[in-house]
Specification:
The structure is a homodimer.
Chain A lengths: L1 E5 L3 H12 L1 H8 L4 E6 L13 E2 L3 H4 L4 E6 L7 H10 L3 E4 L2 H17 L4 E2 L11 H7 L5 E7 L2 H13 L3 H10 L8 H4 L2 H15 L9 E2 L7 H10 L1 E11 L5 E11 L11 E8 L3 E8 L3 H17 L25 E2 L1 E6 L3 H8 L3 E3 L8 E5 L3 E2 H13 L3 E8 L3
Parallel strand pairs in A: 1-2, 1-4, 2-3, 4-5, 5-6, 8-10, 10-18
Antiparallel strand pairs in A: 7-9, 7-11, 9-10, 11-12, 13-17, 14-16, 14-18, 15-16
Helix pairs in contact in A: 1-12, 4-5, 5-10, 7-8, 13-14
Chain lengths: 410, 410
């Protein structure tokens, strides 16, 4: 069966490489040979072993009826969205690794795929090569999913691991990540949490059946964390991790957030270090299950794309009922400030007495070498809005609030 | 669509419960109602809410053409094997959680299923509710699987966790596991490694495409481990876990073993405690991915069975190409004694000098409160047969070898 690949960047060249270097194994497993007929890219690749397959004209793919499956690995929304839509409307199944596309256009593209009786698949969009979409959708199909929480971005996890294990400051750890190729020159998508946000949107849609748009999700990055915070977390018996989390609430709404969280060392997600990802899913029957591995990288991600292509080819005339509804009701996502939390708070000029006058009894934290004027604590559980108001009261009394981090409840 | 359940024990009653309590959710996801038409059990369940569905006659299921999917959750080989075979031959898809059946008859039953264009599925046979069969088979389909290693038995992992964390002896930890319902009155299948052995056989067959029979696998349990060994492992910077492991060797043969292993604390499997399971799979492209969760229990396991049933119903006329060859070539499984290992060894009356005269330089281990006459070490890497011969030499010199444990290389 003929397929096409749109985009010949990191992942796209990996997809071509896997399909070209393993054709017998793949053919044996799909019971059908998979031939890359076209590769779409605006750049020239004269030295590529598949130089003859390249085209700069999308219509060479769109109008070729022999191409039944199209891989979209261009990234971004434009022109990826337009191309994918046209492919689905032309009755071609589409496989993508593009988390931004799925997080912002997933519901619409799934509906178009359903209408045209083809498949739209995106295992590689979350967790790179880690199986997670299909396991949640198929293996846990008898469960109601209660919550999903994960370390969804390897770059920030690498930076936090360096801060935790090597006492390296944020800026140095980021520079090291850039040097090693884990972080881009403009690291905002990673360190500000946007990448993790797109992934938790996809997981929430899959878990609860309704699309969630990234702009609906309160998202905080890791740029304001310091070694002092890491040290307090250590003495508390835990670590700070960037977590994307979503939960089904009792009233049918969901909570969803991306932010650093303090995790106790007994939490399985706390053991996930370096560039690894871990996605913890709570099912109504299975309780917690977790998927772990390298969440990015050329060949891991490409291999997940190829697995989806193989599934499309094997089931070319069968619809996989992967589907979620579109949803523009703003009340579906509960206000994060209305959720109850415990907050870790590091202050200058705070003290037990003045803090407890405002918060009631708090858990006082310690760390080696803390200056006299530093005071850190964990608030009692309360609605976040109220906790923020109390911090405001403290500030009005001359206490400087340096960092706040939510205590994770995974 | 009508289905039948053979066996109304722990898992079987869970399957019925899930199908009866969630019919709308399940029907929405499969696009078809699933009706339990018959439940086979020799016992009477007059107070069951589905008392009218029970039968003691297998033919009520076999000859009912409206029953297209049959769940086998009786356990054991007889009569499960015979019933499953007849169902497949009658063009019914079969879903099972029976690891003994899959590990001993899997290749044959898969072949019969293929011949009759129906499905034979067994997600629940490894890892209970943890997704593992489908992720390896589908999500990692573009990879060659290089190795699989896992904590595959929750009972022994609970016992070892109690030994490690609470300094509880093996017998006490086993008694506690029995009291809590984690271990059976006759705990042999768990503590002697047979349960883990069946699971690693299934994983090896799935990963490498050829059936491996349990009797081909060198299997050791945890009954000879002591608190002294646990303590040495701790001082070495690790823990002892019961591991099932299989690797593809360069010559096309495989290694496969079930035994306690010393794991460094940096190994992700070392973080898996209590009744949890973890299965680490190394793919040629993905590198290590791990699946984690509760590996047993009524509802987690039953939910995995129901997910397979839903998959069968959704694809009732589509074959899933899950398949492995039968294999009776004894040379396919390499002799474990020919593999190279490092061994942890605890002795009475050993000493650095006498041990190093036989082994060359060894890594000497320490623990608090060790008696003068105790000496523990880790051998250099060598073929296991040679290491065993050297231990024999030591014994001939009056050194008593109390415990040996392989050092894990996951």
């Amino acid at each position: 069966m003929n397929v096409a690949i749109m985009g010949h960047g990191v992942v796209g060249s990996g997809v071509a490489e896997i399909l070209y270097t393993n054709p017998e194994t793949i053919a044996k497993r799909t019971r059908e040979e998979i031939v890359v007929k076209r590769i779409l890219d605006l750049r020239d690749f004269p030295d590529s072993p598949y130089a003859d397959r390249f085209t700069k004209d999308f219509n060479d793919i769109l109008t070729d009826d022999s191409i039944r499956v199209v891989v979209e690995v261009m990234g971004g929304i434009h022109p990826a969205y337009d191309f994918v839509k046209q492919c689905l409307e032309a009755n071609k199944s589409v496989v993508t690794s593009n988390k931004e596309l799925v997080a912002t256009k997933g519901a619409e593209l799934l509906a178009i795929a359903a209408e045209h009786n083809v498949n739209f698949m995106f295992e590689a969009s979350v967790g790179g090569g880690i199986p997670v979409i299909r396991p949640i959708h198929q293996c846990m199909a008898a469960n109601n999913i209660l919550s999903v929480a994960g370390i969804l971005n390897g770059t920030t996890n690498f930076i936090l691991t360096k801060m935790i294990e090597d006492n390296m400051g944020f800026a140095d750890a980021l520079a090291l990540a850039q040097k090693l190729g884990y972080a881009e020159r403009n690291p905002s998508a990673d360190v500000d949490g946007h990448d993790a946000c797109r992934k938790i949107c996809i997981l929430a849609a899959l878990a609860f059946g309704k699309h969630v748009y990234p702009e609906q999700v309160h998202t905080e990055g890791i740029t304001s964390l310091t070694l002092e915070d890491v040290s307090y977390a250590h003495d508390w018996g835990g670590v700070i991790k960037l977590i994307g989390q979503t939960k089904m609430l009792d009233d049918g709404r969901i909570s969803i957030i991306v932010c650093p969280m303090l995790l106790k060392n007994s939490c399985q997600l706390s053991t996930i270090d370096d560039v690894f990802n871990g996605i913890m899913v709570k099912g109504s029957f299975t309780d917690d299950v977790m998927f772990y591995g390298k969440g990015a990288g050329k060949l891991p991600t490409a291999s997940a794309v190829v697995a989806d292509v193989m599934d499309c080819v094997k089931h070319i005339d069968t619809r996989k009922y992967l589907f979620w509804e579109d949803n523009h009701d703003p009340s579906y996502v509960a206000d994060y400030l209305e959720q109850s939390v415990c907050l870790y708070v590091r202050t200058e000029k705070g003290c037990k007495d003045c803090v407890e006058k405002v918060f009631g009894p708090v858990e006082v934290l310690t760390r080696d070498g803390a200056p006299e004027t530093e005071f850190a604590f964990i608030t009692p559980r309360m609605v976040e809005k109220d906790a923020r108001a109390k911090l405001q009261t403290l500030e009005e009394q001359g206490v400087e609030v340096k960092t706040t981090v939510r205590v994770g409840e995974i």
